[in-house]
Amino acid sequence: ALMLQFMPLENITNLLRERLERMPSASSSPDLLKVDVDHADCLFMQEALNVIHPKLLHVEYMPQAPPPLDYAQHYQAGLLEVDLFGRAVPLLLAEKLDRHNPGEKIMSEDALTKYHKSNMGDIAPASESPVGTGLKQSESSKGREFTGCSLAAFLSRAPGYALVAAGDEEALLVRRDLQPLLGYGPPPGAFVSWVRGSLCHPLRGAAPDYTSWG
User: Fold this and answer.
1) Contact between 142 and 150 (Cβ < 8 Å)
2) Nearest to residue 135, comparing CAs of 77, 214, 201, 208?
3) Cis status of the peptide bond prior to 102, with omega within 30 of 0
4) Taking the model in full, what pTM does it have?
5) pLDDT above 90 covers what percent of the chain?
6) What is the pLDDT of residues 139-187, one digit of tens each?
7) When comparing pLDDT for 76 and 72, which is higher?
8) Which tops the pLDDT comparison, 15 or 120?
9) Following CA atoms 194, 195, 199, 203 in sequence, which dihedral angle do they give, to the nearest 10 degrees?
10) Residue 188's closest CA among 202, 167, 157, 203?
11) pLDDT digits (tens, 9 = 90+) for 21-52
12) Rounded to an integer, what distance in angstroms lies between the CA atom of residue 22 and that of residue 189?
């Protein structure tokens, strides 16, 4: 079934439970859960896993932070666009280089500062923040951060899953009770997988965007 609906982080569990109750054919153990919202993805995955237990997880991670660094972007609803064709706006937009004009930034520092001041509101105290995000400062004073989550952040928030493989910025996880069925031995180490899939990727540094290492 196709559901076109904005899913705020604090309401994911309720929406998923409602969908499972209303759809007799729906399963709490789907074959695959793919998470790619370009905004604190590991937090969305963590909330979804409170309700469903997919056999496989396909996630997009931030390769700049190698394991064991556990980095998770703060959830900021004000940065999410709710229209069907909208995308999350990276906080490091000034660091993102124009694909069509290598070396040119999409926004200047002044333009970026004005953009965030006009688009950010206050974040609730930690005791009131949704799903334990623990945000205390206002978005306007918190500063910029990378978009997404590190590989280690996904793994730490999905304890019932084992890493299968990691690419340049995508990873596949399998439910631990199913991992032996893959028949290739114990799960690979996160750091080794990151080195093979991302650090030593043949296209590393070739694309002039914000995922380049320089």
Assistant:
1) no
2) 77
3) no
4) 0.70
5) 42
6) 444 456 788 999 999 999 999 999 999 999 999 999 999 999 999 899 9
7) 72
8) 15
9) -90
10) 167
11) 988 888 999 999 999 888 899 999 999 999 99
12) 40
CB atoms within 10 A of CB 93: 17
pLDDT at 152: 97
Q: Please check whether residue 80 is in contact with residue 121, taking contact to mean a CB–CB distance below 8 angstroms.
A: no
DSSP letters of the chain? --------GGGHHHHHHHHHHH-TT--SS-SEEEE--SSSHHHHHHHHTTT---SEEEEE--TTS-TT---BPPP-GGG---STT--PPPTTGGGPBPSSSTT-BSS-HHHHHHHHHHH------TTTSGGG----S-HHHH----SSB-HHHHHHT-TTEEEEEE-SSEEEEEETTTGGGG-S-SPPPHHHHHIIIIIT-TTTTTS-STT---
Decide the pairing of beta strands 161-166 and 32-35. Answer: unpaired
Burial 48-80 (b: 16+ CB within 10 A, else e): bbebbbbbbbebbbbbbbbbeebbbbbbbeebb
pLDDT value of position 25: 85
Q: Are 154 and 171 in contact (CB under 8 A)?
A: yes
- Rounded to an integer, what distance in angstroms lies between the CA atom of residue 58 and that of residue 144? 27
Query: Cα-Cα-Cα-Cα dihedral of 11, 17, 18, 24, to 10°?
Result: 160
